[in-house]
Amino acid sequence: MVTRRILPALFCLLFLSCKAGRPAPKIEFVLGTFCRIDLYESGSPRLYNRLFARLAELDRILSANRDDSELSALNRNAALKAVPLSPELRTVLERALFFAEASGGALDPTVGPLVKLWDIGAKNPRVPSEDEIQAALDMVNWRDLELQADGGALLRRPGMAIDLGAIAKGYAADELVKILKETKVPRALIDLGGNIYVWGGKKDNTPWRIGIQNPLDDRGSYVGIVETQSISMVTSGVYERFFTGQDAVRYHHIFALPGTGAGKPGYPVSNGLLSVTVAAASSMDADALSTACFSLGYEKGRALAEAAGAKAVFIFADKTIRGSAGALDAFTLMDKSFRMEPKL
Ligand code: ADP
Ligand code: MG
Fold first, then answer.
1. Fewer CB within a 10 Å sphere, N or C end of the chain?
2. What does pTM read for this prediction?
3. Residue 198 burial (C-beta neighbours within 10 Å; 0-12, 13-18, 19+)
4. Ligand 1 centre and the CA of 315: distance in Å?
5. How far is the CA of 44 from the centre of ligand 2 (A)?
6. Nearest Cα residue to atom 19 of ligand 1
């Protein structure tokens, strides 16, 4: 059975006073997920079109799932030749490599062969054989992605492939926020398949209240609420994309890589965590960090988030919740079956 996000992951509950007659938010399927943008009182068709056109443009650059994307051209040329990069792809690859190094390889943009092999969240997910997994793992190593001084990029070994699923939606959210700044939109909510950006505050200047999804229940219930404004919040979790194998085991979509302590290499991360939510002004950083922290676990993940100036909330299978320094200050527990560990 394949489970995919059917609607934008509405773990985001916003208690904003909703004036009758204001323009409706817009939802489109792009970047492999449902993207929802709510511009509130600034919601002109022209601005919505501009924002969704930018998302479509980024999909043509960053998607690993379409043959005509710029990223696919880079992948096709693995071990053949260096490929010139658009400024967008270069920015995302540079940041991905930064976090690959900072996370000791827990987040690795060259994870493409493993993602394709498992095919989780796509058409034919399956549990591959040990040999297949080993062969895919042999092609994963961010050190073999070379960003050249003249602007090109080269994948050094045959069969290598980049996958930006862990970071691209964050970059896209930041690009939308650039447009919101430029057009002086005072408040907006961006939800790119659970990758949230709350722009501005509420009309009365009080913070937004954002719900964090209960990872044990994908029906939109939440564990707690965070009060915040002008920030991105991104969650990586076992419930985001998964399939249930014939062995009745649930396999989710974030893979443990060798030497990172995240579980058996090449298999879904298995470290007692159910989800990690990261808040940061840069949605690209929050996105990369949510995946990296989920893989690294609490101690190393917390240190990484803190070094990057972000806040992270970790939810464990034993129903405990822990935060990086200051992360639980604005967090209110709603589901009392979970337990908050002492605040840092
Ligand atoms: P989502 O795509 O559900 O928002 P994430 O941001 O956590 O969740 O990214 C997960 C995606 O990142 C996977 O679907 C896959 O494309 C890719 N991925 C899986 N494992 C890794 C990894 N160890 N490092 C980098 N990217 C990964
Ligand atoms: Mg991510």
1. N
2. 0.93
3. buried
4. 18
5. 30
6. 254
Q: What is the pLDDT along the chain (344 residues), one digit of tens a residue?
A: 333 333 333 444 444 434 456 789 999 999 999 999 999 999 999 999 999 999 999 999 999 999 999 999 999 999 999 999 999 999 999 999 999 999 999 999 999 999 999 998 888 899 999 999 999 999 999 999 999 998 899 999 999 999 999 999 999 999 999 999 999 999 999 999 989 999 998 888 888 999 999 999 866 799 999 999 999 999 999 887 888 888 878 888 999 999 999 999 999 999 999 999 999 999 999 999 999 999 999 999 999 999 999 999 999 999 999 999 999 999 999 999 999 998 77
Residue 143 neighbours by CB under 8 Å, 6+ apart:
none
Q: Are residues 244 and 329 in the same domain?
A: yes
The answer to whether residues 275 and 204 belong to one domain is: yes
Among protein residues, the one with the nearest Cα to ligand 1's atom 15 is: 165
Same structural domain, 131 and 246: no
Residue nearest atom 16 of ligand 1, based on CA coordinates: 165
319 C-alpha to ligand 1 centroid (Å): 23
Rounded CA-CA distance 285/207 in Å is 22
Give how far Cα 24 sits from Cα of 18, 42, 48, 113, Å.
10, 11, 11, 40
CA torsion, points 293, 247, 9, 208, in degrees to nearest 10? -50
Ligand 2 centroid to Cα of residue 237, in Å, is 9
Q: Is 225 in the same domain as 98? A: no
Ligand nearest to the CA of 192: 1
In a domain, 135, yes or no: yes
323 part of a folded domain: yes
- Main-chain dihedrals φ then ψ at residue 167, nearest 5 degrees: -140, -20
Domain CATH code at residue 136: 1.10.3980.10
By the 8 A CB rule, do 161 and 64 touch?
yes
Number of domains in the chain: 2
Q: Is the CB of 115 under 6 A from ligand 1?
A: yes
Ligand 1 contact via 269 beta carbon (within 6 Å): no
